[in-house]
Amino acid sequence: MADAYIVETVRTAGGRRGGALRDWHPANLGAEVLNALVERSGIEGGVIDDVIVGCVTQAGEQSFAFGRNCVLASKLPQSVPAVTIDRQCGSSQQAVQFAAQAVMSGTQDVVVAMGVESMTRVPMMSNVTLHAKAGLGEGPFSDRIAERYGTKNFSQFIGAEMVAQKHGFNREELDSFALESHRRATAASNAGAFDAEIVPLAVEGGMHTRDEGIRDDATLESISNVKLLDPNGMISAANASQICDGAAAVLVVSEAALKKYNLTAKARVVNLTVTAGDPMIMLEEPLPATDRALERAGMKIDDIDLFEVNEAFAPIPMAWLKHTGADPEKLNVNGGAIALGHPLGASGARLMTTLVHSLNAQGKKYGLQTMCEGGGIANVTIIEAV
Fold first, then answer.
1. Is 342 a catalytic site residue?
2. N or C: which end of the chain has fewer CB within 10 A?
3. Distance between CA 57 and CA 63 in Å, rounded?
4. Out of 89, 167, 244, 357, which one is annotated catalytic?
């Protein structure tokens, strides 16, 4: 089977809800990372075979063939096609995997995988609530699903609490993990670790180049004082990922395209895995998914140099660490979504962007990315820096 290579990957700095990126139409956010990807890679936009765009809340400004609208708002020729996909929080990680599969199969040579989410302008769950307000149908979970699972209440917040309880964590441990995310993100940002991956955007007051969610002054006390989402639980807004606006993009090409267009690869795709499990405790799936990915790749956890595990909620990467026995010093070394934000459909490409740049900057070889996804699904992608 042919190899798939990552040539370039970029992202916007995250914007808080109602923050710096509030005036950016999401199609324009997507267009900006597309333009930067083409410019930085040196490829001519017209040779792109397809653009695969992850987006979770496909409503309002993120509806009506949203991926295509990102292309139409960009400098790419109108001849470049695009498609929008939804695998919940893993949407743009799946976009990367679809792009790699297209290249590895030999059906395409140059594919862009990207993700966009403006959680300010298209609020989370608004595609569901608009449907409910219109009085149309029963919502996304049918009577057959309710009969099978005894409920229609499939909540990621409940799933996070279930993971925390199952793996024996307490709130102080969750809050301490959250604090470390801010500390690492602060150190990385101050050291310029994100500079090469961020696409500057013009905003009110100047250029947006720093993730707004990073709290340089975070303390365990300030995090612990945040109100619990469930008075009887452990999850708070402070030990969960931040609502965020952002976009990210990854250029995936074949070996033939590397030679034909004189491109330089940053990484090679080693393994693509997706698994699914219990939709109730849905966020635990990265654990068995990682086991399967390593087995299929013929690797062990110690073979991996850096990990990006999405910090949807603190107990998820904590449970993943406990299950895999991975070195915590290799996990989310520049902080994670608790500090940097989680722009839903864009997060998969954002994590891949940071992983690729981190491997190259640190001279490391193998990286593994995984994230929990609604419905009990998880993607795992293993790459090798080249």
1. yes
2. N
3. 8
4. 89
- Catalytic-labelled residue, pool 55, 70, 244, 372: 372
What is the DSSP-derived secondary structure letter of residue 140? S
Residues 297 and 382 sit within 8 Å (Cβ to Cβ): yes
Residues 70-92: tens digit of each pLDDT: 999 999 999 999 999 999 999 99
Residue 119 and residue 21: Cα distance in Å, rounded?
10
Pair of tokens at residue 161: 């609490």
DSSP 121: T
Q: Which helix (H) or strand (E) holds 36?
A: helix 26-41
Per the listing, tokens 């990367």 go with 96
Q: Among this protein's residues, is 25 annotated catalytic?
A: no
Instruction: State percent of the chain over pLDDT 70.
Output: 99
Q: How do residues 353-364 score in pLDDT, each as one tens digit? A: 999 999 999 999
- Tell me how far apart the alpha carbons of residues 332 and 234 are, in angstroms, rounded to a whole number: 22
Q: How far is CA 84 from CA 69, 229, 254, 271, in A?
A: 10, 32, 22, 23
Task: Look up residue 380 and give its two tokens.
Answer: 């795992």
Is residue 132 predicted with pLDDT exceeding 90?
Answer: no
Of 88, 283, 276, nearest in space to 167 by CA: 283
Distance (Å, whole) CA 145 – CA 241: 28
From the list 343, 283, 282, the residue with the least C-alpha distance to 314 is 283
Residue 131's pLDDT band, with cuts at 50, 70 and 90, is low
